[in-house]
Specification:
heterodimer; A: 114 residues; mainly beta; seven-stranded mixed β-sheet; 0% helix; B: 118 residues; six-stranded mixed β-sheet; four-stranded antiparallel β-sheet; 53% strand; globular
Chain lengths: 114, 118
């Protein structure tokens, strides 16, 4: 059974650019969550999607957005990149995203902003 | 607001030693879930255990064991007879109640980097 797949694994952007990251959940999983991991702030919740609807959102500026498609695949977008956006972005999927459920994480997309 | 504290930033031990990773949490919820995840160098978070707030039974899985104590708001993780392959960053997390019923958000501790030396 394939795990959570994130693409691209590594990317380098410059300030002011925008970036789109992709996440393919485990087959059958309908909930996708995104987390940002930085050395300073640690792991922080970005947002969660279920059946194409954003159900929960973390405390991030509007430059961070996401969406989910009918096949449960998800994308997140960061516009007007800042140096502080350099991070490992982790996607996690679960069957329903139900409170207390196990999350399955991908290996992440490592973004470097120069 | 929910909070998870892992006071040990880094731990280094020699192989075969026992090691305990501490986790203290804060929440006003009466129902909550606690998790431990392992992050190897490849980056993905690997699920280790989940415990709900009504189940204070300690759990043992091979060389791993977990001690959940609501009285002290702690959920500590012990590795017995550590091995080099146990080297990783370990995260404790708390499932925060979502505004919309059913939507999950994890609050993570800062992580403990565990190095097992041969």
């Amino acid at each position: 059974k394939a795990g959570v797949t994130q693409t691209p694994r590594y990317l380098i952007k410059t300030r002011g650019q925008q970036v789109t990251l992709s996440c393919s959940p485990i087959s059958g999983h309908r909930s996708v969550s995104w987390y940002q991991q930085t050395p300073g702030q640690g792991l922080q919740f970005l947002f969660e999607y279920f059946s194409e609807t954003q159900r929960n959102k973390g405390n991030f500026p509007g430059r961070f957005s996401g969406r989910q498609f009918s096949n449960s695949r998800s994308e997140m977008n960061v516009s007007t990149l800042e140096l502080g956006d350099s991070a490992l972005y982790l996607c996690a999927s679960s069957w329903t995203g139900k409170y207390g459920g196990e999350l399955f994480f991908g290996e992440g997309s490592r973004l470097t902003v120069l | 607001a929910q909070k998870v504290t892992q006071a040990q930033t880094e731990i280094s031990v020699v192989e075969k030693e026992d090691v305990t990773l501490d986790c203290v949490y804060e929440t006003r919820d009466t129902t909550y879930y606690l998790f431990w995840y392992k992050q190897p160098p490849s980056g993905e978070l690997v699920f280790l255990i989940r415990r709900n707030s009504f189940d204070e039974q300690n759990e043992i899985s091979g060389r791993y064991s977990w001690n959940f104590q609501k009285s002290t708001s702690s959920f500590n993780f012990t590795i017995t007879a550590s091995q080099v392959v146990d080297s990783a960053v370990y995260f404790c997390a708390l499932s925060e109640t979502a505004i919309i019923q059913g939507a999950q958000k994890l609050v993570f501790g800062q992580g403990t980097r565990l190095t097992i030396n041969p």
